[in-house]
Each structure stands twice: as C-alpha cells, then as structure tokens.
Design brief:
There is one protein chain. The relative contact order is 0.10. The chain starts with 15 loop residues before the first helix and ends in a 9-residue tail after the last helix. It has one domain (16-333). Strands 1-2 form a two-stranded antiparallel ribbon. The chain is mainly alpha-helical. It is globular and about 65 Å long. It contains 17 helices and two strands.
Length: 358
C-alpha cells in the first residue's frame, strides 16, 4: 500500500487589510534585516506609497514596525547620513495611524544638526524641505533659490529626449516634492510638461514600467492626463507581475517596479496590491515578455551617420527596414501616444549636433 502525502501550499490572502498586512510584514521582517540601508529604502518606499495614496493598512499591520519606531531616534543619531529615510518612515508611520509624536522631534533634531547641508544634490535638499515641512519646520536652505534651480532643470526638455534614467527619475521626484505628492499644484510651465512627455516617450519605447509609472504619476500630480496608451499598458503590466514565496527565494527582484506600478493603479482608482500574498518572504517579478526597441533604435540611428535626420517622417522608412517587427510595433504605438513625438524624435536623432531650439 502506498502512503500518499498531500502537501498543502500556503493559502493566499485575499482581504485588503490582510494583504497589506502580509506585504508590510514581508518588507519589515522577511526580506532584509537590521540596519541594512536597503531595508530602509524598501520600507520607506512602501510606506510612502500607502501614505500618499491614503491607503490605511490598519493598526495590526503597523505593529510590525513597533520595535523600529521605538528606537528610531537612537538609530537616527547613530546613522545621521540616512536621515531622510528615518524621517520618511517615522512620518509615514504616524500619518498612517501609529500612535506617537516622535517624528516632530526627529525633524527638529535633523534641522538643528543642519543635516541637509551635508547634501550636494538639490534634489535631496528639496526632499529634506518637504520632510521638514510635514511637521512645520522651516528648512535653513534658500527654498526659493532651490526651487528655481529645480525648475530650470525641468525646463530643459532636450535633456529628456535622450536616454538618461537618472535625469528622468530626478524629474519625477521634483514634481513629487513640489506637489507634496499630489496635495498641491506644482505649477509646472509648458517646458516642464514637455519634459515629462519626452521622458515618458523614452520610458514607453524602452518598455520600462518602473519609470513610466512614476512619469504618469507626476503628470497626474501636475494636472495633466497621461496618454491612455501608456496607462493601459501599465495596467496590463501590473496584472502580469508574479509573486513567489519561500524562505530561500532571492530578493534581487523587481520589487520597486511592482510597488510603483501598484502606486499608479491606486492613483488612478484601480485595484492596487491585488495579488494574493502570503505571510513570509516574497519576491516580485515582472513579465519578461516585453519588446524593447530602444537598443535597436539607437544602434540603427547611430549607424546611419550622415543619413540620419531629425525629421521623423523621413526616418520612419529607415526604421522600418532596420527594426524587428516587435520593436517597430512599440515605436509606432509611441508615435501615436503623444503629440510631442516629433519634437521628441528631433532631439533623440541628434542629427544636427544638438536638439532643436524651442
């Protein structure tokens, strides 16, 4: 007689409160540990998304952070170089419902220690301004001058017609900080709005759902309506994420893309974090079935040499003969998605040693 052993897989959690509890527990206790800066980054990101979308996970879900919250002041004083992470997490925990008022004291301490003065980046100083303002503490920086430099950066649309992920992410984060994550009008001018379209076109052509989600969120915060083709694609990609679990699964995964795609879904009123989660360690993987024509497109343009033109209608015929059908489909979709495409392509082509003046 054969003994049959039935293995029962862990049950997937379906209610929103339980799903969010499992998700926070995963990031707080199962993926990274201790004072790992990556632990700070991951948990700051998930808590920020919940806070700025008004998604309260419930008191029970926040309990997993109780130990961290009790010692956050001690941690901040020992690791002041990570002050933005500590402030962000403490502020979000309190604003999501955790009892306590430590965040105000932490903000004041960071201000008194002039920690933003250790930042060379205007973007990081702008984040500090926003964090301090959440507890009515004025930054020591000349905020108007800081904002002026940030707006000048956003207004240089030529920057965003070329592949440069760092610049594109900085663009979105400036909008996040100036809009207080959608709580006020960031008052973007036409050039900054064009920059968002250029960066979005590049992200779509690259099929980069992580960056495109942030760009669409920034456009929404600026009062613009992102192209439907972009948002429809993001909805599909969000649904295609897979979640795997187990004590040994690697956390070198696509967690950030998973988070911002769901952030975008929450912002647009669609179901967010709707996957079935389990208690324990989880990893998050995006769909691998993506045609990404950026490399093909760049190589084809580069090898055209003197035949390269900034006129899209002329170059379209050259592209059709040099790109794979899958890549050409994505490029054709990008062409129809934004009325800024021809302007964008003129800069992307680099046919005249520079981009077209506006």
């Amino acid at each position: 007689m054969t003994n049959v052993i039935q293995l029962t897989p862990p049950s997937r959690i379906n209610s929103q409160e339980a799903r969010l509890g499992a998700l926070l527990s995963c990031f707080a206790t199962h993926r990274r540990f201790g004072d790992d800066v990556f632990w700070l980054k991951e948990n700051a990101e998930i808590l920020n998304i919940l806070e700025c979308t008004g998604t309260a996970p419930g008191d029970a879900a926040l309990d997993v952070y109780a130990g961290f919250y009790e010692t956050v002041g001690k941690r901040l004083r020992f690791f002041p170089q990570y002050y933005r992470f500590f402030l962000s997490i403490a502020l979000d925990l309190e604003d999501l419902g955790m009892p306590g008022d430590q965040a105000e004291q932490l903000v004041q301490w960071a201000h008194d220690q002039t920690l933003p003065q250790a930042e060379l980046s205007d973007l990081q100083r702008l984040e500090a301004v926003r964090l301090f303002a959440r507890r009515d503490v004025s930054a020591s920086d000349d905020v108007l001058a800081l904002e002026h430099r940030a707006r000048a950066f956003m207004a240089r649309s030529d920057t965003f017609a070329l592949p440069n992920k760092k610049a594109a992410y900085e663009l979105t984060h400036i909008v996040f900080y100036l809009s207080e994550y959608g709580r006020c009008d960031p008052e973007l001018d036409a050039a900054a709005r064009r920059s968002l379209h250029f960066a979005g076109l590049l992200a779509f052509i690259e099929q980069n759902a992580d960056l495109l989600s942030e760009i669409c969120i920034a456009m929404h915060y600026a009062g613009d309506v992102p192209p439907a083709l972009w948002t429809d694609w993001l909805t599909r990609e969000t649904a295609l994420f897979s979640v795997s679990d187990g004590a040994a699964v690697s956390v070198q995964d696509d967690y950030h893309e998973f988070l911002v795609c769901n952030w975008h879904q929450a912002m647009t009123g669609h179901g967010a974090f709707s996957k079935g989660f389990v208690e324990g360690r989880m990893r998050f993987d995006r769909s691998m079935d993506r045609a990404a024509p950026m490399r093909e497109m760049s190589e084809a343009m580069f090898h055209l040499d003197d035949a390269r033109s900034g006129d899209w209608m002329t170059m379209r015929m050259h592209m059709e003969g040099r790109l794979s059908p899958e890549a050409m489909t994505v490029l054709a979709q990008a062409e129809t998605s934004s009325h800024h495409f021809e302007e964008f392509f003129h800069g992307f082509a680099r046919a005249d040693g520079g981009t077209h003046p506006h």
